[in-house]
Amino acid sequence: MNKILRGVIPAAVLAAALWWFWPSAPHDTAAITPSVLVTTITLKPGSLPQTITAYGTIAAGPGAETTITMPASGSMDAIDVMPGQAVMGGAPLLHVQPDPQAVADLRKANSAVVAAKANRAHVAALFAARLATSADLAAADQTLRDATSTLTALQTTNTGMAFTLTAPFAGTITAVSASTGAMLPAGTTLLRIVKTSGLVAAVAAPAANAAALHPGDGALVSLLGSHQSLPGKVTAVATMIDPQTGLIGITIAPDGPVTLGAAVVADITTGTLSGYVLPRDAVQTDDHRAYVFQIDAKNIAHRQDVKILGNIGNQTIVAPNLNTAMPVVITGAYQLDDGSAVRTGP
To answer: By the 8 A CB rule, do 195 and 77 touch?
Structure first.
């Protein structure tokens, strides 16, 4: 037994020594506190525009849409455009052939002018020979004027002539109601065209927000689904609620080319917000509360509830109720709890 004990005791002592001096075994058995890598910024007072966001589409502004009608009766020979097509000013739209009656009316008017001119010349010769009175000459002049006016009216409306209707301005065709081969009377609606320069952003916002809007307010109009944004100005704010949407209509004139019917979002500036400007990712939310983390001198994170005043792009402005001596976490905040140890990076 003593021999066994003499063998076991040195082995136990050796094992204990190896455990103590083995490189991977720490001498200090106290738990190491984990830390989160974060980046921070120093708080500085700042400001952002106070905005109202409204959604809508690009539409025709007041007076921007024009209806093209038949100036004289005739048959539709050809149509060069279709709904949704963009056209330049002066571009051909429709080609019309005159109807037989209109041709006859034009010829009759031409003949009447020729006859009136001949009659006037004859009466003038008689008047010079003292064989006609001044009243006779005046009547001949009136007959010529009437015949000329009738002919001019027919020519102005292209009555009795083949003609081409052209675009009165650069724009977009919104509707075509004519068809080739149809015999159409004067005044028939043929198509509608919206002037490119008359397009507006027709958007809407809740009445509580729209109350702060006024014509002349600046706006940024962005096309949904693209990166295109244009500055603009509010030109009109409705004074009644749309019964279908429950919203207030707002008209914005964009400063640049837009596409009719495009869906847009408008950020309308109504004033200025003052506070602390932070990257949007720095502000976290929990149970409808917003908060940030600030770091003390011992690199411990402290949760601070904040009031969001507004958002612009990737920036958020919060009320100035934070300690400016403590930096704010801008990346890594989602990993933190109140009291977490952190280490800061560049």
So the answer is: no
